[in-house]
DNA sequence: ATAAAAGTTTAGGGTTATCTAAAAAATTTT
DNA sequence: AAAATTTTTTAGATAACCCTAAACTTTTAT
């Protein structure tokens, strides 16, 4: 049984490790958790004692199989709650993160299974991120940043990489949403910005930063 | 801003004080919170410093206007969540309490207003308890225990007084629910038990304890 | 290769919420 | 009214989580 704080650290480690594929440094964790390295070291010892991560001094941490399973359940809860907030309570996609950060820690297996059923077993959340099922599995669609796309193929917006409220609000404003079809009309050499056509209807320019934050399939 | 624990203490004080009408003793709080009197004294000092209760040593506490408002918001959240769990996620009424105890502490005014709207502004929860509106007001229907009813008038089940899971399961089993119509067929002198007719269809005997725990209108 | 810089851990504290044991006050009993 | 009992408060600890400052290790630069 993990505490609220332990769950948050574990989730951060899971994300920072690229879903558990690489080791994570103390400083990276301190950065994302907005704490000091000393606090991270304390928590690392706790999570290590609970076999959630393996830890070697000065070398960073690796998430264990068990830790990954726990982290995936927190991610599952977070994404199911975000889906609920948008689909049922009509939150906009830029309003859901902070509330889901709280809701993800509610302890009740029954609740999350019933919520999943109520939402009809969604596979992606409002930001296009995959929702692990109750065994921790999820579909991995190979997505690339829009900035890496070439030519004028039919492109579908699949997810945002960094879902900050201001970026999401900006996307809404220009008419970009998950599932939208876009075509690249022109790439501006000078600054890497793109002129794109959204749903064959609307032309807009987006910055390189924005195009790097949009994950798409061709 | 109150902590999770402060909210729980305040809610307990609100209930123990009869919605803020009478003073509450340290020992009563310790009893319902499953803590020691010493811990209660500590918390009383904190809540008093935050002007949620007024406190005089050795005399128990009284909830303030501000404290009552805070407690009502926690009660509102608890009851809205219970309603959600039963109506939307199809929990049974004996399964909701513990989950709602967690959900009631989620901090988001937007969430609770949207939830209220999603549920179409319910006025009572699954146990028949009134749900305060966003200003803290709620309809008070004069209810009496079934045990205090006389004669064979048409009686409507309105609420349970003590909603313990085992009592609720028992009610489901014998066919008693909020809104059911009952008639008293006979009062057994020996033990105060009642023979009742439910919805004009089913006769059952219920103990005095059970009849004292059912709140009704005549 | 060694000195400087960067990153990490340890040491020592602070806060919140809990506890036990002892002291103090109020209540009940004789 | 005094003694006994009960209730409440105070005193002193503990655990979780976080901090700063100092010590230690690793990495980078000269």
TrEMBL record, chains A, B:
<dbReference type="GO" id="GO:0003677">
    <property type="term" value="F:DNA binding"/>
</dbReference>
<keyword id="KW-0805">Transcription regulation</keyword>
<keyword id="KW-0238">DNA-binding</keyword>
<protein>
    <recommendedName>
        <fullName>Transcriptional regulator MntR</fullName>
    </recommendedName>
</protein>
<dbReference type="InterPro" id="IPR036421">
    <property type="entry name" value="Fe_dep_repressor_sf"/>
</dbReference>
<keyword id="KW-0804">Transcription</keyword>
<dbReference type="InterPro" id="IPR022689">
    <property type="entry name" value="Iron_dep_repressor"/>
</dbReference>
<dbReference type="InterPro" id="IPR022687">
    <property type="entry name" value="HTH_DTXR"/>
</dbReference>
<dbReference type="InterPro" id="IPR007167">
    <property type="entry name" value="Fe-transptr_FeoA-like"/>
</dbReference>
<dbReference type="Pfam" id="PF02742">
    <property type="entry name" value="Fe_dep_repr_C"/>
</dbReference>
<dbReference type="Pfam" id="PF01325">
    <property type="entry name" value="Fe_dep_repress"/>
</dbReference>
<dbReference type="GO" id="GO:0003700">
    <property type="term" value="F:DNA-binding transcription factor activity"/>
</dbReference>
<dbReference type="InterPro" id="IPR036388">
    <property type="entry name" value="WH-like_DNA-bd_sf"/>
</dbReference>
<dbReference type="InterPro" id="IPR038157">
    <property type="entry name" value="FeoA_core_dom"/>
</dbReference>
<dbReference type="GO" id="GO:0046983">
    <property type="term" value="F:protein dimerization activity"/>
</dbReference>
<dbReference type="InterPro" id="IPR036390">
    <property type="entry name" value="WH_DNA-bd_sf"/>
</dbReference>
<feature type="domain" description="HTH dtxR-type">
    <location>
        <begin position="1"/>
        <end position="64"/>
    </location>
</feature>
<dbReference type="GO" id="GO:0046914">
    <property type="term" value="F:transition metal ion binding"/>
</dbReference>
<dbReference type="Pfam" id="PF04023">
    <property type="entry name" value="FeoA"/>
</dbReference>
<comment type="function">
    <text>In the presence of manganese, represses expression of mntH and mntS. Up-regulates expression of mntP.</text>
</comment>
<comment type="similarity">
    <text>Belongs to the DtxR/MntR family.</text>
</comment>
<dbReference type="InterPro" id="IPR050536">
    <property type="entry name" value="DtxR_MntR_Metal-Reg"/>
</dbReference>
<dbReference type="InterPro" id="IPR001367">
    <property type="entry name" value="Fe_dep_repressor"/>
</dbReference>
